[in-house]
Amino acid sequence: MRVTSLPPPATPGQAWINALRQRLATGLRRDRDLVPPGQGCAWLLIGALAAGLLGLGLFGLGGYQAAFLPLNRWAGVLPDGLWEGLTVLGDARLAIALALFFSLRHPRLFWTLILAALAATLLTHGLKPWVAAWRPPAVLPAEAFHLIGPALRTSSFPSGHTITVAVLTGVGGCFLPWRPARLLLLGLAVTIGLSRVAVGVHWPVDVAAGLAGGWAAAWLGLRLAARWEGLAGRVEVHLTCVVLAAGAAVLLLIDDGGYARSRPLQLGVGLSALGWGLREYLRLAWRGGG
């Protein structure tokens, strides 16, 4: 009589990895249904083109400083705390930390956000040293405009905060099945971009360039995520991205970026993202082991 030996039972770690792999596969199938197949959200390129043309138009009509003083003065009728809170929403640390909320339930969205953020980072840090443009505090007298927060002086072009929020809203808009929500997200991106003018550290041309670059990076992230979709389901790649997002959340807890009044917002997002991620992955470990 032939005796068949049974495979050894899985260790808790192996069970958790298997459960995570299954959860990622389920999430990838769900996310594929949200993104229009084959379209790649081409409306992002239309938005990027429109923002780029707007920036060129502003520069052609009034130079690099075009429309800054009127917009900065208009923004002064609203509370400083409002603009400070809005501008903090464009902090790259905050945007990447927010991705933790989607990491396990929507792994393709998470993977796309990470890829688009990396593309945007390369764009931002590639242009800023090359252009080396001065910010408003470096060229305008202090009494000429309203400044909120730190008086940043260098590396003005393009607006990194605007690029970040354009990436976040652009990728998010492509995953939302309700199209009117895209308009709300695009409006949010423009508003947060304008907050950089309101706090007095960027020219409108910088903001227009940031919108163009961010939406283009979001489109590129979607294309790369579709091409490398298999990587999104690999446990080691996924966990590397999770550690990156968790590191961004920790950085939010350490430094307020010069906007002390928005410290509660930053602490709230950082702690919530870390808590949510810890809860989700520990719950998966408990289920996987048991």
Description:
With 290 residues, this protein is an all-alpha fold. It has 13 helices and no strands.
Summarize the structure.
The protein is mainly alpha-helical and 290 residues long.
- Please give the number of β-strands: 0
Tell me the structural class. Answer: mainly alpha
Please outline the major beta sheet.
none
Number of helices, where a helix is a run of at least 4 consecutive DSSP H or I residues: 13
Average pLDDT figure: 89
- Distance from N terminus to C terminus (CA atoms, Å) equals 34 Å
Helix content: over 70%
Shape assignment: globular
Instruction: Name the helix and strand elements from N-terminus to C-terminus, one letter apiece.
Output: HHHHHHHHHHHHH
- Please tell me how large the radius of gyration is: 22 Å
Strand content: under 5%
- Report low-confidence residues grouped into runs of 5 or more: none
List its traits:
globular, mainly alpha, 290 residues
What are the SSEs and their pairings?
Elements: H1 12-34, H2 43-62, H3 68-75, H4 80-88, H5 92-98, H6 107-131, H7 136-139, H8 160-175, H9 180-198, H10 204-227, H11 229-232, H12 235-254, H13 263-289
Helix pairs in contact: 1-13, 2-10, 3-9, 4-9, 5-12, 6-8, 6-10, 8-9, 8-10, 9-10, 12-13
